[in-house]
Task: structure prediction
Amino acid sequence: MQVHSVNFSPAKPKRPPEQWQPPTTEITKFNLDGALTPGNSFSGWGVVARDSSGQVIITRAGRQEQVHDAFGADVNALATVMMTAAELGATRVSFKTDSELLADALNIRRVDASPYAAIIEDIKFQSRVWFFK
Result:
């Protein structure tokens, strides 16, 4: 029997968490996150919305069925949070997520090829229709 050694690279040093920054006047900032436990077919999401003074406007959390990966959890979180913003009547908004993959998918000009392409395209459309830049 042959024994193979496995080398693990050292963990990257963690960056200190960013301090929350308030949005500019007249903008509502929505900080959101999706969460998934591997092996489950559902995800969780949460959001807190604040105004430029840091006053909490709304907090919400929920569960989304039929989600099988972390990217899907973040996509569904943003879709739900955008509905929340529309329900509040917020038109000048900022959505903040820690998902670089989601931010990249939303900024790409071509259609996304992921299983979440339809949701991503709907998010792009809804943001153009309901929210001002």
